[in-house]
Amino acid sequence: MKTRALLLVAAAAGLMLPALARADDYAGMLGYLNQSRIDGRALTGASGAIAVNQVAGDLNAQANLVGMAQGNQARVDVDARSTSSRNSVLLDGPLHASAHIDGQALQGANGIATINQTSGIANTSMNVVRATLAREGIRESDDEALAESSVTASAGGQGRAGNGLAAGTRSVGVAASAMQGFDGVLQLNQIAGAGNDTANILGMSVHGNP
Questions:
Q1: pLDDT at 7
Q2: Which partner from 81, 139, 183, 191 sits 20 to 30 angstroms from 62, CA to CA?
C-alpha cells in the first residue's frame, strides 16, 4: 500500500508541474504525460447540441461556437480570436501525449456535436457552426447565397512549448465501436503534441422563397 501511494503522488506531481523535479528519478522516467480519453458509454444516445472540450496539458485553448438565426433578414456573424503573451513551458523530459475516443462513446447520438480533444502544450482547436434561414421554407441555394456566409476565426498564438525536449510519443484515434449510428453534424478536433492549430468551420445560408 505504501508503494502504491508513492506512485500516485509522483504521477500527480508530474501532471501539476511543467518542469519535472530532477531529484525524483521516477518522475523523470515518466517524463511529461498528457492523456485525454472519452470512453465507456459517454454521450450514448445524446440528442441536441453536444459540445465537449477536453484537455490535458498546459497553455491549450479550445472553443465550440454555434450560431443560428431565422427571419426575413437573418444573419449570424462569428468572430473568435485567441491571443497570448510570452507564455512558455520548459520540458525536462519527453512529451508523451495521446487523445482517444473509445468504447461506445456517442453511439446513437444525434444533433450537432462539436468536440475538441487535446493533449500536450500550446495547442488551439475550435469548432464553428453557423446557419441562417432568411425566409420560411428551404430551397436549393446557389453559390452567391452560400458566399454570404460570415465566419471569421483565428485560433493561433496560444503560447509556445519552449526549448525543452521534443522526443516522446504522440497518439490520436477513434475506435471503430465509437460514434456508430451518429446522425447529424459532427465536428472533431484531436491533437496530441505541441504548437498545433486546428479548426472546423461550417457555414450555411439559405435565402429565397420556398
A1: 28
A2: 183
